[in-house]
Amino acid sequence: MLTIGCHLSSSKGYLAMGRDAEKINANTFQFFTRNPRGGSAKAIDPADVAAYLDKAAQLGIQRILAHAPYTLNACSADEQVRDFARRTMADDLARMEYTPGNCYNFHPGSHVKQGVETGIAYISQMLNDILQPEQTTTVLLETMAGKGSEVGGRFEELREILDRVTLSDHMGVCLDTCHVWDGGYDIVDHLDEVLTEFDRVIGLSRLKAVHLNDSKNPLGARKDRHARIGEGYIGQEALIRVVNHPALCHLPFYLETPNELDGYAREIALMREHFREE
Ligand code: FE
Ligand code: FE
Ligand code: ZN
User: Fold this and answer.
1) Ligand 2 mean position to 240 CA, how many Å?
2) Rounded to the nearest whole angstrom, what is the distance from the C-alpha of residue 149 to the centroid of ligand 1?
3) 81 alpha carbon to ligand 3 midpoint, in Å?
């Protein structure tokens, strides 16, 4: 069974996301923990969470994926910006324990002229500050397009962060197909080689989720503009090979394509239609 869903709006709470997932035949989904531009999060409503957990069990919803606000920068040169990222993520991780055993994905950050080594040091330091031994949430570093001074455009950079995190059992990686393509990893003509490289540098056991997106730009463009499935440079056939690859097919896939619910429903149906059950 293919585990696939998309990014859903979290503004109406957990149960509403469960209902949206049901409408589009998704068995997982991603959501922002709070306004994607940061700011304070709505209080968790335990009754909403309980109703959602019932619904999720009934629908067979697998691991869901929370996404940190993308404006956080754990490796900013500005101490206050780093501190805001640390406090926001610590609060998100506390909230995640209402829905135990899921994943929390974040963009490592942009080092902005400090150099990638300084960026990596700040990011791992933050993770060492916020990870708790007893947490049930796995924190995922997202593979990035390498736009500007983004950290995480190379697998080696993610590996270096993981190496420096003490509670690294609580860490994993989320592979974004648009981002790796934009970062220069050719998943269209050399998917096997890219995954072998991922395994050599990071280890496939670290890979916990895939963001399934087409790209508006050619290989290596370092732009990060998502396209709908089949409307970009990666293309539908290559993305079908991604969900069917033996190293990936058991993972949850999350669409972050520019769509409303009906568009997501079509892309989910398309991927289910082309998924080969083992
Ligand atoms: Fe992301
Ligand atoms: Fe992504
Ligand atoms: Zn992106």
Assistant:
1) 18
2) 16
3) 21
How distant is the alpha carbon of residue 162 from its chain centre? 16
- As a whole number, the mean pLDDT across the chain is 97
Ordered DSSP codes for 28-81 = --EEESS-TT--PPPPP-HHHHHHHHHHHHHHT----EEE--TT--TT-SSHHH
Phi, psi values for residue 98, rounded to 5°? -65, -25
Name the token pair of 4: 């696939």
- Kindly report the CA angle at 106 between 48 and 100, in degrees rounded to 5? 35
d(CA 258, CA 268) in angstroms, rounded, equals 14
**Sequence-ordered list of residues with C-beta below 8 angstroms from that of 21, at least 6 positions apart, any chain:** 5, 8, 27, 28, 29, 59, 61
- Give the three-state DSSP class for 131: coil
Q: Tell me how far the alpha carbon of residue 254 lies from the centroid of ligand 1, in angstroms.
A: 11
Residue 39: predicted pLDDT: 78
Distances (CA, A) of 59 to 2, 21, 110: 14, 9, 38
Buried b (16+ CB within 10 A) or exposed e, 56-65: beebebbbbb
Residues near 41 by Cβ (< 8 Å), separated by ≥ 6? 33, 34, 91, 92, 95
* Best CA proximity match to 134, nearest among 106, 94, 105, 173: 94
Question: For 177, phi and psi rounded to 5 degrees?
Answer: -65, -40
What would the pLDDT profile of 149-208 be if each residue is shown by its tens digit?
999 999 999 999 999 999 999 999 999 999 999 999 999 999 999 999 999 999 999 999
- The whole-angstrom separation of Cα 83 and Cα 75 is 10
The pTM for the full model equals 0.97
How many C-alpha atoms does 195 have within 13 Å on its Cβ side?
19
Ion ligand 2: residues, CB within 5 A, are 176, 211
